[in-house]
Write a structure and sequence with these properties.
By secondary structure, this protein is α+β, with helices and mostly antiparallel strands. It is built from 16 helices and 21 strands.
């Protein structure tokens, strides 16, 4: 997680936006991305610069007082040196894109001073740019006011590939995909699109795992072929959303009826923990799953559904590294099998009214059940955790939820900065 956050900060600072028409810039970038790209991500980072208390003046990034103070507190000479080098690298701080084509991942953007850029790259690799229509040095290519970096290579990039990208017609480019073409009018800090099969191949999963994931998606969604996502930095938090799309470009339908979490069930746990999880289970969902599994003979899922036949409403739990406590909302009838199963798994179980309460050990932590309830609001299921020691105290909480969206589901990830009074991005470079 710490590597993820620091990488995120490095990309943000390297690709900070400026005063150009970002919509037009993004279109120019998308025109040079081939239609067979399996993943595309574009960045309109003018808002990110503002969130990080920076601005651009004559191509130079100007840190504000808050940013300068955060950098001073970080006491990181190496980071300061890298920022100074980037700020004088000749990069035009406008739109940028990352895309995957074949086995290669590219970062591409614009240059305001190709001479400065070439000098910085040559110093980095200790060699000169090779001459030609497309100039290359290490894993960097330059053609006029455009640059490309092959991110999965340390010292190679193929000039002919870049020539191919620049010669694409609109039908040959990723703009031929209407879902990707929508990225031209990006309204968030970051937006992306991916082909599900291509993205799974990129994940490095073995054949069996890819097949299982594909089968799972086909089971729970109708006509799931693509994904789209966005990310925004808002005050003290980062919010990212992801949705599964169908072949018509709409939200892929979720095959099971859903309900949303009852926040009061989470609040009424009335305890502190390292994390909380919750799931809303409807009677219709249980019946739908039971109908589908009844035709398959014996299955683990079918046995589990039969055991959970009495569950109805919100199930919530609190946990730390070793301990767990929670409540299962039920119809009040036929809970014996579920209660016996929980006991066999080492939980102390008691029935209060229609609810089954279960526990193992004494749960403790920094997050309150009220805070978790707020983070899980409106979700079908979700988890909230705090604090995140792996982030070196850069974040105070993280949550991931699945929420109803136009007949489908939308994933929502939230990262809250350690200091609620400090912009999220500044918190990443502070102590």
């Amino acid at each position: 997680m710490n590597k993820l956050l620091m990488s995120m900060m490095a990309v943000v600072l390297m690709l900070a936006a400026c005063s150009k028409n970002n919509g037009a810039d993004v279109s120019e970038l998308l025109k040079t991305i081939p239609a067979d790209a399996s993943l595309v991500m574009v960045m309109d980072l003018e808002g990110i610069l503002k969130d990080a208390d920076c601005s651009v003046d004559n191509g130079q990034i100007k840190p504000g007082k808050k940013f300068a103070e955060a950098l001073k507190q970080a006491n990181d000479p190496e980071l300061r040196s890298k920022l100074e080098t980037l700020n004088d690298s000749g990069i035009e701080w406008s739109s940028a894109a990352i895309f995957v084509e074949g086995y290669n991942t590219y970062l591409t953007g614009f240059l305001s001073d190709s001479g400065k850029f070439r000098q910085v790259v040559e110093e980095r690799f200790g060699e000169k740019f090779e001459s030609g229509e497309v100039n290359t040095c290490g894993n960097v290519a330059v053609d006029g006011e455009r640059f490309w970096v092959c991110l999965n290579s340390h010292n190679t990039i193929v000039a002919n590939d870049i020539r191919h990208f620049k010669s694409l017609s609109e039908k040959q480019s990723i703009l031929s995909n209407e879902n990707v073409a929508k990225l031209s009018t990006i309204t968030t800090d970051i937006a992306g699109w991916g082909d599900i099969k291509g993205t799974l191949n990129l994940a490095g999963l073995n054949f069996a795992t890819r097949a299982a994931v594909t089968m799972g998606l086909e089971t729970v969604f109708v006509d799931a072929v693509e994904v789209e996502w966005t990310a925004s930095f808002d005050k003290d938090e980062m919010v990212a959303e992801i949705a599964v799309l169908n072949t018509k470009g709409g939200i892929a339908k979720f095959n099971f009826p859903v309900e949303t979490i009852d926040e009061n069930v989470v609040k009424n746990l009335n305890m502190k923990a390292e994390g909380f999880g919750a799931l809303a289970i409807s009677e219709k969902m249980i019946e739908t799953v039971r109908e589908q599994t009844s035709q398959e003979g014996f299955s683990l899922l079918g046995a589990l559904v039969n055991m959970m036949g009495s569950v109805q409403g919100t199930t919530a739990m609190a946990f730390d590294d070793d301990n767990t406590a929670g409540v299962i909302s039920t119809t009040g009838h036929g809970t014996a099998d579920l209660s016996d199963a929980l006991s066999q798994w080492g939980f102390a179980v008691s029935k209060e009214g229609k609810d089954l309460k279960f526990s193992r050990g004494a749960v403790s932590g920094a997050m309150t059940s009220a805070e978790a309830a707020e983070m899980l609001k409106g979700a079908v299921c979700g988890v909230a955790v705090s604090p995140l020691e792996e982030t070196d105290n850069k974040c105070r909480a993280l949550s991931f939820c699945l929420k109803p969206e136009k007949g489908g589901l939308k994933g929502e990830l939230r990262l809250k900065g350690a200091d609620a009074k400090k912009p999220f991005l500044l918190g990443l470079i502070s102590k």
